[in-house]
Amino acid sequence: MISNRSKWFRKIKGNIAAVVLIGGVGTLVYGIYKASLFVKRITASKEYNYHQEMEDYIYHKELEARKKSNELK
Questions:
Q1: Where are the transmembrane segments (predicted)?
Q2: What does the pLDDT average to over 58-62?
Q3: In the chain, alpha helices (H)
């Protein structure tokens, strides 16, 4: 009985190794893909925040200029 199991295992040992290898590579590629999407999203949000901060700064300066011009009149 033990010898039958060892023959069976020897026959599929290469297939098991191939499935594990392909699964590992697939998991690695998927992880790299998800990490790249995460980094892309973070960099895009920082860029958006910089633009939003600049627009807010300009708007604030315009309001200050309007207040000063109204006070001078």
A1: 12-33
A2: 93
A3: 2-72
